[in-house]
């Protein structure tokens, strides 16, 4: 093989190395082990590369609350929809949110009935939209973890510097470490080790998980997204469990440092402050959300608009809550693949490309 043709990605897909890593995992997996990934991109990568099929039966992979759209509470989804129903508002959103069912309707259905809902690829696109439509108010739907939030904070700072008065954000942003703690207390959930999210860790760094690790003493490994990254991280977790020596380690050193990205965190902290927030499946988790700080109140959609939504139960029969905590798997749901499919989803886990139900439907039906 001409090595000039070998791409960086191929280097992390080498079959011979993969076989060696699988053998390491098989040797280490001397007892049942339940490992959870808390990143939707990991969920998809694990399915796409057939990693579940390579693992010994002793290892069970659980998909946790790593898909931002899936963990967004119905109350927030209903709030997004209520905003779209206001004539003066243009809702700017990532595409995944369009099809997430609220209690009565969805953004897609509202758009079909005349609401002005636009798909954007970044929060900065929404700022551009606001500049193009000075007579309307553009509301960006802020959904995502620490990976996305710095870019949303930067968009708010840009809007402020431009003197824009017709741009604001509905922040449903969340942070990952408090959710790990909540998972440890979730009923019917048993986790022996965490595959920590690569993208989020680029921003927050490995040390951000130290308080969680010291409190629970559970094996934790930061993982990348190529097959060898994931296999190496699973092997590390399996060895830690087998040896009874839990550790917080980093199997994604080419992208993640101990301290993460201080500049991104500083921008995020300038605009957002921690707040308690509701997660689908996990309820309210203290200090797990990000609210827009008082000095940026003019850019906070929840303060600019009186958004009246009522609490409604989850769709009947939908198990998204227990699926997100690893207590159940999508195929436990009686609606899976019958009433609930990617083209006609009942719950958010079937909507997002990073949702567990969508991944099971696509790869494991
Ligand atoms: S299959 Fe559909 S209804 Fe069932 S848990 Fe998943 S998203 Fe909810």
Automatic annotation (TrEMBL):
The keyword Metal-binding applies. GO terms for biological process: protein maturation. It comes from the Bacteria. Keywords: Iron, Metal-binding. One of its GO terms (molecular function) is carbon monoxide binding. Belongs to the HypD family. NCBIfam families: hypD (TIGR00075). This is Hydrogenase formation protein HypD. It comes from Desulfatitalea alkaliphila. The gene is hypD.
